[in-house]
C-alpha cells in the first residue's frame, strides 16, 4: 500500500490510499460469506483481525472507501490478507476474539484486553446441584454448556431455566424455606432432603434444553406472550418476547468453540484440476487457535497424497500430536492411528462433522482463489510479453534469455544467464559461466565467449533457441552478441540491450543501429524488463560472490603447511568458510579424511589468521 497522487491501470485510488495489484486481484475473489479476515503488513505479520457477515463487502470497504485516523494508517500498512469462512456471524465473532487473543494484532486495541474467556452455564456436581454462570471449564464433574459470546443472553437464559426447571437457589440447609422456594424457583434444599431422582429429572430437562431441544419451552413462552398481549399486558408480552430471543441466541449451535478441552486437529481437503488443497484446524483450549493451509499438485491418488501429508506433517520438528485427529471417511484411519499412535476418527454427526465440512469449504475456497490468481498472473505476464514484443516489432517472445557479467577489478570474472518463459522466471534453465578466455574486465570479450558457448551448445544438441536475447548493458554488449550470432553461428535471434540511467535504474532498450526504444515507466513491458534486468544482475552477483569467496578461502588455505589441493577441496566442501574451519574441533577436521598432524596445523594457523584480522 502506498500513497499516490495519480492513477494508473495497476493501482486504484481510494481517497489517499491505493490497493496494490496483488490485493486488487484478491479482492475480486472474496466470498459472499461470513467469516474472519486477517490483515498483514509487509513482513507478513498480522496487524488486524476482523469479522464480517459478508467478507466480500467488509474487506473491500477498506480499499474502496476513504479513511481517516487510525483506520487510514492501518490500511496504508496492509500488503496482504487472508480469510477464514464460518457458518454464521456468531461463529465469526467467536473466532475473531480467539484470533485476536492469539495474535495480539497492533490495531485491535479495544479487543486485546482480557483473558479471552466466554461464559458457560454450569450444573454443579454436588448433593444439591445449582445452576451457575462461570468463565472457565474445570475438571470437577460438573456439566458445562457453552461458551456463549452474548453474556446478557446467557444470563437471561439462566434465569429462565431457574424459573422453569428449578434446582437449588439458596445456600443450602437453613431449617426454613428460602424466598426462592416460595417463588417456585428452588426445590427446598434449604429445609428438607430433596430426592436425587427429582434432581436427575430436572437436570435431564435442562441438558435437553441447552442442547437445543427448546421447542416445547418456546411453545409455552409463545402461548404466554400471546395471552399477555390479548390481556393488554404489553410489558409482560415484551418481556416474554425478549426471553424467546435470548433462548434462540443461547442455544444456537456454533462450531468454532467446543464444549471439551480435548486437543484436536481437524484435516480435510479438496481437489481440482490436478491440485490438492489441504487445511488443518487446530482446536486447543476448546477454541480454534490456528489454521494451516497447503496446496500442491497431485502426483498419486488424492487419498494417498493426503495420508502421506498428514504423516509427514507430524514428522516435522516441534509438531506435537493432539489427543484426537479428525479426518474424512476416505482416509485409512487404522493405518494412520498405528503410524502416529494417537486417536484418529471420522465424525458422523453433530458439531465435529460440521467442523469437518467447514474445513473442506475453506480448502475449496483457497484452491479456487489460487487458480484465479494464477490466471490473473498468467494474463498479466503474457500481456507484458506481448507489449514488449510489439515495442520491438518481433513475434511474441515466449522465451527470453538474458546475460550479465560480474567481476571485482577484473578478477574472478563470471557470467550468468536467466530465462523467462511467458513472463515468468524458469530457474531450472538458469546457467552460470566461469569464463575461460577472458582474464580481465572486457565486456565485449566476455559477451563473445558466453554467447558463443551458450548457442553453439544449443545448436550442437539440437535444442530450441530463445525468441529474444536481452543483454544487461548498452552498445558494446549488443554489438558483441550480434557479431557472434550473425557472423559465427549464422543465427537470427532478436537482441536488445537493457540500458540503465545514471541512478542505475532501467531506462530504455537499445536495438540495431543504436536505436533507442523508450518504455513508459507505468507499462507492463517496463516492469517485465526491469524484473529481468534485476534478476540477471542478482544471479550474476551471487555467483561471483561464491567464486570469489571460494578463491579467497583457497588462497588462505594455500599458506598452510601440509594442505594440498585434495585437502583443500575436502575442507571447503565440508565447512564452506574459514571461520567454520577454524571453529571446528580437531576430530571434526580429521573426519574429513585428513591426518591429525595436518588438522592441528590447520587449526593453529587459522586461529592466528583470524586473530590478526580482528586486530
Automatic annotation (TrEMBL):
The cellular component terms of Gene Ontology attached to this UniProt record, alphabetical and capped at eight, are: cytoplasm; excinuclease repair complex
Give every GIY-YIG domain span.
Answer: 32-109
Subcellular locations according to the entry = Cytoplasm
The organism's superkingdom is given as Bacteria
In this protein, which residues make up the domain named UVR? 215-250
Q: What's any GO biological process attached to this entry?
A: nucleotide-excision repair
Entry-linked InterPro entries: GIY-YIG_endonuc, GIY-YIG_endonuc_sf, GIY-YIG_UvrC_Cho, RuvA_2-like, UVR_dom, UVR_dom_sf, UvrABC_protein_C, UvrC
Q: What is its main location?
A: cytoplasm
The Swiss-Prot or TrEMBL record annotates one GO molecular function as: excinuclease ABC activity
Domain (UvrC family homology region profile): give its ranges: 266-485
Pfam families tied to this protein: GIY-YIG, HHH_5, UVR, UvrC_RNaseH, UvrC_RNaseH_dom
* Assigned keywords, A-Z: Cytoplasm, DNA damage, DNA excision, DNA repair, Excision nuclease, SOS response
Subunit record text: Interacts with UvrB in an incision complex.
* Protein purpose: The UvrABC repair system catalyzes the recognition and processing of DNA lesions. UvrC both incises the 5' and 3' sides of the lesion. The N-terminal half is responsible for the 3' incision and the C-terminal half is responsible for the 5' incision.
The family annotation for this protein states: Belongs to the UvrC family.
Q: What is this protein called in UniProt?
A: UvrABC system protein C
What organism, scientifically named, is this protein from? Answer: Apilactobacillus ozensis DSM 23829 = JCM 17196
Amino acid at each position: 500500500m502506498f500513497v499516490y497522487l495519480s492513477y494508473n491501470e495497476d493501482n486504484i485510488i481510494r481517497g489517499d490510499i491505493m490497493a496494490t495489484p496483488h490485493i486488487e486481484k484478491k479482492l475480486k475473489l472474496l466470498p459472499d460469506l461470513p467469516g474472519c479476515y486477517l490483515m498483514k503488513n509487509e513482513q507478513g505479520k498480522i496487524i488486524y483481525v476482523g469479522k464480517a457477515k459478508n467478507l466480500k463487502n467488509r474487506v473491500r470497504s477498506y480499499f474502496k472507501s476513504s479513511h481517516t485516523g487510525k483506520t487510514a494508517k492501518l490500511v496504508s500498512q496492509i500488503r496482504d490478507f487472508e480469510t477464514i469462512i464460518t457458518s454464521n456471524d456468531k461463529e465469526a465473532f467467536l473466532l475473531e476474539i480467539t484470533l485476536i487473543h492469539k495474535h495480539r494484532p497492533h490495531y485491535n486495541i479495544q479487543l486485546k484486553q482480557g483473558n479471552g474467556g466466554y461464559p458457560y452455564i454450569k450444573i454443579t456436581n454436588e448433593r444439591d446441584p445449582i445452576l451457575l454462570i462461570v468463565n472457565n471449564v474445570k475438571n470437577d464433574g460438573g456439566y458445562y454448556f457453552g461458551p456463549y459470546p452474548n453474556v446478557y443472553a446467557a444470563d437471561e437464559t439462566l434465569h429462565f431455566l431457574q424459573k422453569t426447571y428449578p434446582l437449588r437457589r439458596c445456600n443450602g440447609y437453613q431449617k426454613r424455606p428460602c424466598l426462592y422456594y416460595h417463588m417456585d424457583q428452588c426445590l427446598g434444599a434449604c429445609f428438607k432432603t430433596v430426592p436425587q431422582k427429582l434432581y436427575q429429572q430436572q437436570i435431564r430437562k435442562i441438558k435437553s434444553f441447552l442442547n437445543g431441544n427448546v421447542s416445547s419451552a418456546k411453545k409455552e413462552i409463545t402461548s404466554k406472550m400471546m395471552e399477555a398481549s390479548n390481556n393488554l399486558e404489553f410489558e409482560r408480552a415484551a418481556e416474554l418476547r425478549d426471553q424467546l430471543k435470548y433462548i434462540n441466541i443461547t442455544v444456537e449451535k456454533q462450531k468454532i468453540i467446543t464444549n471439551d478441552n480435548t486437543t484436536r486437529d481437524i484435516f480435510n481437503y479438496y481437489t481440482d484440476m490436478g491440485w490438492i488443497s489441504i487445511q488443518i484446524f487446530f482446536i486447543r483450549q476448546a477454541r480454534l487457535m490456528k489454521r494451516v493451509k497447503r496446496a500442491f499438485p497431485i502426483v498419486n491418488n488424492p487419498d494417498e497424497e493426503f495420508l502421506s501429508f498428514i504423516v509427514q506433517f507430524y514428522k516435522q520438528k516441534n509438531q506435537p500430536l493432539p489427543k484426537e485427529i479428525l479426518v474424512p471417511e476416505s482416509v485409512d484411519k487404522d493405518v494412520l492411528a498405528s503410524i502416529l499412535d494417537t486417536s484418529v476418527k471420522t465424525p458422523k454427526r453433530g458439531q465435529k462433522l460440521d467442523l469437518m465440512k467447514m474445513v473442506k469449504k475453506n480448502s475449496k475456497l483457497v484452491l479456487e482463489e489460487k487458480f484465479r490468481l494464477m490466471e490473473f498472473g498468467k494474463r498479466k505476464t503474457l500481456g507484458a510479453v506481448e507489449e514488449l514484443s510489439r515495442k520491438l516489432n518481433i513475434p511474441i517472445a515466449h522465451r527470453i534469455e538474458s546475460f550479465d557479467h560480474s567481476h571485482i577489478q577484473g578478477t574472478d570474472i563470471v557470467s550468468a544467464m536467466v530465462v523467462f518463459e511467458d513472463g515468468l522466471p524458469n530457474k531450472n534453465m538458469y546457467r552460470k559461466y566461469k569464463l575461460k578466455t577472458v582474464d580481465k574486465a572486457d565486456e565485449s570479450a566476455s559477451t563473445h565467449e558466453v554467447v558463443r558457448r551458450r548457442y553453439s551448445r544449443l545448436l550442437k544438441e539440437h535444442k530450441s533457441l530463445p525468441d529474444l536475447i536481452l543483454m544487461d548493458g548498452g552498445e558494446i554488449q549488443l554489438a558483441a552478441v550480434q557479431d557472434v550470432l550473425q557472423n559465427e553461428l549464422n543465427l537470427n535471434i532478436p537482441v536488445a540491450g537493457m540500458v540503465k540511467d545514471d541512478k542505475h535504474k532501467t531506462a530504455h532498450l537499445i536495438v540495431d543501429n543504436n536505436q533507442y526504444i523508450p518504455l513508459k515507466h507505468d507499462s507492463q513491458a517496463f516492469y517485465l524488463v526491469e524484473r529481468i534486468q534485476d534478476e540477471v544482475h542478482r544471479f550474476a552477483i551471487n555467483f561471483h560472490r561464491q567464486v570469489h569467496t571460494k578463491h579467497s578461502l583457497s588462497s588462505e588455505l594455500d599458506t598452510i603447511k601440509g594442505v594440498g589441493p585434495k585437502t583443500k577441496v575436502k575442507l571447503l566442501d565440508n565447512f564452506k568458510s574459514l571461520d567454520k574451519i577454524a571453529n571446528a574441533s580437531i576430530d571434526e577436521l580429521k573426519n574429513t579424511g585428513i591426518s591429525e598432524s595436518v588438522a592441528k596445523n590447520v587449526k593453529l594457523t587459522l586461529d592466528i589468521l583470524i586473530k590478526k584480522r580482528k586486530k
